[in-house]
Amino acid sequence: MKRYLITLLAMAPFLEPLAAAAQIEGAIDLHVHSAPDSVPRALTAIETAQIARRYGLRAVVYKSHFVETASLAYLVSQVVPEVGAYGGIALNRSVGGFNVEAVKRMAAMTGGHGRIVWMPTVDAAQGPFAATVEAANILPVSANGELLPEVIAVLETIASLDLALATGHSSSQDSLLLVRAARGLGIDRIVITHPLGDLSLPEPIQRELIELGALLEFPFGMIAPIGATSLDELVTRIRAAGAEHVVLSTDLGQPGNPVPAAGFAGGVQRLLDAGVTQREIDLMIRRNPARLLNLDP
User: Fold this and answer.
1) Any idea of the CA torsion for 285, 290, 293, 294, to the nearest 10 degrees?
2) What are the CA-CA distances from residue 1 to residues 4, 24, 48, 88, 260 (Å)?
């Protein structure tokens, strides 16, 4: 309790009071980091869910760059059943990279809480971690303009298990290859992982990804004063894509940043103040993420 109260106070200019919780009641946060993890996190997964319950969130998705989180989500669901807890697996080297067996075991984990497969993040050649990745550890998605066979095998597994695909820290060209192949295999729940900053999409590629049915994930953790993207740019990106093609998340849980649920509430309020409509918000934080997780028929 003390840890997250200190975090809230430190980020007071960004946050709205708890009255803003009404703005995110029934929302789903598709991108939350928590302990236990291999890097420092501000809160445990249970604390994160308990605070999410206070804000009335419908569900949260736990993401780790290093291990599957379906098992963690199952344990959280036993302690905080009022909030849906879900997880997935990021295909970095710590889980064997493009490891079909790891995907299958994640999906088969007790309770069926594993819903998303992320392409490489910390071991990708681009994105916020690229500068720290040794060349020998990079996990390429494609070569010579074609997806690698092991990547296609993973996509086939995602399709067979009816999981959602997230593009991770893939380049715009690789994202396009992934989504085209995924749609060809019948995968219809796809999210482009935070296409902001150095993962921003050229307009023609963004347009094709949207036409293929992919959703764009814009996290509040990448918006100023936390991240480098301005609120105006976020609003512009939402308008360009159309709210029906966007999901909002937090990508929060790091020490010194807002508590995920509080950051979610504050971010939504800022968008409303900037002229984004309640209908658009409802699409981006409730309906679209529910479809991505296959929660609603």
Assistant:
1) -170
2) 6, 22, 11, 27, 14
- The amino acid that residue 264 corresponds to is F
Report d(CA 207, CA 192) in Å as an integer. Answer: 12
Q: How far is CA 142 from CA 122, 183, 253, 277, in A?
A: 17, 17, 31, 39
For 102-133, write each residue's pLDDT tens digit: 999 999 999 999 999 999 999 999 999 999 99
Residue-level pLDDT at 23: 86
Q: Would you say 48 and 78 are in contact if contact means Cβ atoms under 8 Å apart?
A: no
**pLDDT given for residue 22 in this prediction:** 76
CB 192 within 8 A of CB 135: no
Residue of 85, 168, 83 whose CA lies nearest to 133: 168
Task: Kindly list the distances between the CA atom of residue 248 and the CA atoms of 24, 48, 127, 210, 268, in Å, as whole numbers in the listed order.
Answer: 11, 18, 19, 16, 9
Task: Report DSSP letters for 97-134, one per residue.
Answer: SS-HHHHHHHHTSTTS-EEEEEPPSTTSSSSTTGGGS-
The residue type found at 171 is: S
Helix (H) or strand (E) holding 261: helix 260-273
The pLDDT value given to residue 6 = 46
Residue numbers in the chain where pLDDT is lower than 70 = 1-20, 297
Helix (H, G, I), strand (E, B) or coil at 167: coil
Q: What is the CATH number of domain 2-292?
A: 3.20.20.140
pLDDT digits (tens, 9 = 90+) for 22-42: 789 999 999 999 999 999 999
Distance of CA 206 to CAs 199, 212, 215, 221, Å?
11, 10, 10, 21
